[in-house]
Please model this.
Amino acid sequence: MAKKTTTRDATDTATIHDVKLKRGAGGELHQIAEGEAPALTTAQGGPVADDQNTLRVGARGPLVVDDFHFREKIFHFDHERIPERVVHARGYGAHGYFETYESLAAYTKADLFQRAGEKTPAFVRFSTVAGSKGSFDLARDVRGFAVKIYTQEGNWDLVGNNIPVFFIQDAIKFPDIIHAVKPEPDRAFPQAQSAHDNFWDFISLTPESMHMIMWVMSDRAIPRSFRFMEGFGVHTFRLVNAKDESTFVKFHWKPKLGLQSVAWNEAVKINGADPDFHRRDLWEAIQSGNFPEWELQVQLFDQDFADSFDFDVLDPTKLIPEEILKPQPVGRLVLDRMPDNFFAETEQVAFMTQNVPPGIDFSNDPLLQGRNFSYLDTQLKRLGSPNFTHLPINAPKCPFAHFQQDGHMAMRNPVGRVNYQPNSFDEGPRESPMRGYRHFPAEEQGAKSRLRPESFADHYSQARQFYISQTPPEQRHIAAALTFELSKVETPAIRERMVSHLLNIDETLAATVAQKLGLQSMPKPAEAAVETRQDLEPSPALSIVENGPKRFEGRKLGILVTDGVDAELLNGLTAAVTTHKAVCELVAPKVGGVTASDGSWIEAHHMIDGGPSVLFDAVALLTSAEGIEDLVKEATARDFVADAFQHCKFIGYDASAMPLLEKAGIDDALDEGVLALPGESGLSEFLSELGKLRVWGREPSVKFGKA
Ligand code: HDD
Model:
């Protein structure tokens, strides 16, 4: 008998025969030495002799229906796809754990929050909303931030986004907003874009979306990496303690490495250069042991706070500014393992907002309640069976027992005679009145009707607050994004209607956009349900630039090298990058690498055509007198430098690279972000400058032609 093999799939134990074969270069079959490879089998475990040719009559004759191996293989293949998620189809996940800092027993009886230092396994899936599974990572879009924590009292799914508010206030509008943003139904484009008539038509007719629109037009919607973005539970939830006392809570995930986004022009180019930019980033970080981390912070408040707050805490288009209610850190989430198989885990993971353990409960936010209704249905459709909880990625990791049975692909059925409750055979699981989930007994009353509360009616105050909380470059990006998006809208009335809303948010913003759109005259401000917009204080927590990392840790330096590169300088720079817990990748004119000044061979990660500067957070040009001559002839080398400059990146260069700066047309525009290397104070000075990430002061001259 053959030995049992060590591979993981179902063919593991199917090596039941002695002879193993493999095909040689000429197509002939050889016996595989014992232990060399497992035997290929059918899904039924039968050994396969020939997996290269179908069964046929004669060498050139018809195929025969006896070919059970072919039929099984092709039929299985035909069924490989499951419906993609109706939203958030493109996503990428990773495993990790949640660690509780201190006991939160005063607020919640949720088991995972009881003991300081306790680690609970978790799985996170990040996603874009509008694009299909095969779309590109850097679409301007909201990012999903869905966290499943496998607690000892059942799975807790916090299905959030990287933006703390939402487009709509009532779940009944969800199909409309999603239909509007997805490709238009007659032409099936544009893919993964909100820049089209249907989206802006719906938005301009839906004033409650204005706050969210400010966020989506900001750089929040083009994050540099999943690792550098925040996550938000969005809604107000409840924490409930052992005494059945409830505290309202909003959940926030804060990235340890700070916030960072890319520039729009960069996003467009990244999508071409590396459509998997965000996936690759997460994969590389985790595979290299640089585990991404977020802190869970909570805004806790009671009914008195809710009553005194300017807005309704049940309105998902509003946030509570951090300056008014400081979020408190309660734990951290670390992602430290990629799935073994994308389909089995990331594709089949099923998040549901209604998955909450005892101690976490809902508020009456109508969007949240509508979501609680929707998510189970979508998993039934998508995964095809109520037994999707049998999949390892969805199964609880705590003991569980119930009488649900049968159905497609049931892998677990009740054992024994009894499959009902109550029973007098003393068999099977029983309810736990004390430990089991009890809904918070909130008292409710009112007439049954379809209405929106008046307390949800102010749609512009927080939209303005977001806008005025941004730094000047961030405000410019919002104006540019609105202009770009609306420039793709064919219907002039929609463009005008949007400007009429912008007038209620900020007149200068409206004027900038109107001017770029070529509006002949300014429309009237949109009629607002609430007459007076509140003048709220700016909230610095809303700016990305204000909350950047101030260090280069976790970022990537791209070093363009040529033959003859100064070996000492290059080694010094790569060492300095490592010291700063960042990474660098080398880009060379040819595939393979370059020969350095000391004759050593230096491996490069990219050939220049495949390694444009948009893939890096900053760049360095380390060349040589001989190498630069050929390099300046490469259009891609020129773009490498010109793009880095226009995207306001730091550029380090050694003296030999000056001709390339000239070729890129920036030699007379060198500013504090273009630094000669090694520099007077050495390379660590360059590295600490990189911590600023961008030279935003450069932007008006490169992008807007201002001196
Ligand atoms: Fe949703 C998926 C986040 C409103 C209905 N949603 C989905 C995912 C995220 C969110 C991150 C992807 C989960 C994954 O990775 O598998 N959704 C949100 C947030 C919302 C929101 C933060 C507002 C605050 N969603 C929302 C509403 C509805 C839905 C109002 C319907 C009433 N969402 C769904 C869904 C999806 C989904 C159709 C599609 C795939 C899935 O559930 O698993 O049920």
Q: What stands out?
A: The pocket of HDD is lined by residues 85-88, 91, 125, 127, 144, 146, 159-161, 166, 171, 174, 234, 316, 349, 351, 367, 370-371, 374-375, 378 (CB under 6 Å). The first helix runs from residue 68 to 78. The chain has four domains: 1-80, 91-165+219-390, 465-545, 550-703.
